[in-house]
């Protein structure tokens, strides 16, 4: 590759791509763990009587989710830009003698980008589905508790009226 005038440019692009891929890999692992811990903390909340602490915890997790999503999207965008520059380089005049090797390397980086993009969207989609489901279940649970507590008061009142009514009938 030393024979081509732009080979150092190509190597710089490859280095940038590998660096971004490594960063993305680490972020995606952390992102996946965050999403898993979110659903676990939500599941654990069901048996607890106090909602105050888990709600704070989940709002913190929601903020972390949003922040990490933006960071991952930015890294994916940067990696896409580097891949595009690599594609331009392979199409430039003078790179034809190494075109097969360059195209193979470019394809490998494109595959990695595609895998990371797919993994990110899948994890993000799962997280949002869990959060939506839990929010819906949480509101239904609150409605049921409100109904039960309201019914409990009404049942006691009804019971007292029935007792008084029976007492008056005697």
Key terms:
rod-shaped, mainly alpha, 170 residues
Brief characterization of the structure:
This protein is an all-alpha fold and 170 residues long.
Question: Can you put this structure into words, describing what you see?
Answer:
By secondary structure, this protein is mainly alpha-helical. Helices cover 88% and strands 0% of the residues. The protein has three helices and no strands. It has helices at residues 7-45, 52-91, 99-169. α1 (7-45) runs antiparallel to α2. The chain is rod-shaped. The relative contact order is 0.11.
Mean pLDDT: 81
Count every beta strand, where a strand is a DSSP E run of 2 or more residues: 0
Total helices: the number is 3
Share in β-strands: under 5%
Secondary-structure map with pairings?
Elements lengths: L6 H39 L6 H40 L7 H71 L1
Helix pairs in contact: 1-2, 1-3, 2-3
């Amino acid at each position: 590759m030393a024979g081509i005038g732009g080979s150092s440019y190509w190597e710089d692009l490859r280095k940038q791509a590998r660096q971004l891929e490594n960063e993305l890999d680490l972020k995606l692992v952390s992102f996946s763990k965050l999403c898993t811990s979110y659903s676990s903390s939500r599941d654990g909340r069901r048996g607890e009587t106090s909602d105050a602490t888990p709600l704070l915890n989940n709002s913190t997790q929601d903020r972390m989710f949003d922040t990490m999503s933006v960071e991952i999207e930015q890294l994916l965008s940067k990696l896409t830009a580097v891949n595009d520059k690599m594609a331009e380089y392979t199409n430039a005049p003078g790179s034809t003698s190494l075109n097969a090797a360059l195209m193979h390397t470019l394809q490998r980086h494109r595959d990695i980008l595609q895998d990371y993009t797919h993994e990110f969207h899948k994890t993000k989609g799962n997280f949002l589905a869990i959060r939506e489901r839990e929010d819906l279940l949480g509101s239904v649970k609150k409605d049921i508790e409100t109904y039960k507590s309201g019914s409990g008061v009404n049942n006691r009142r009804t019971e007292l009226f029935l007792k008084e009514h029976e007492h008056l009938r005697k």
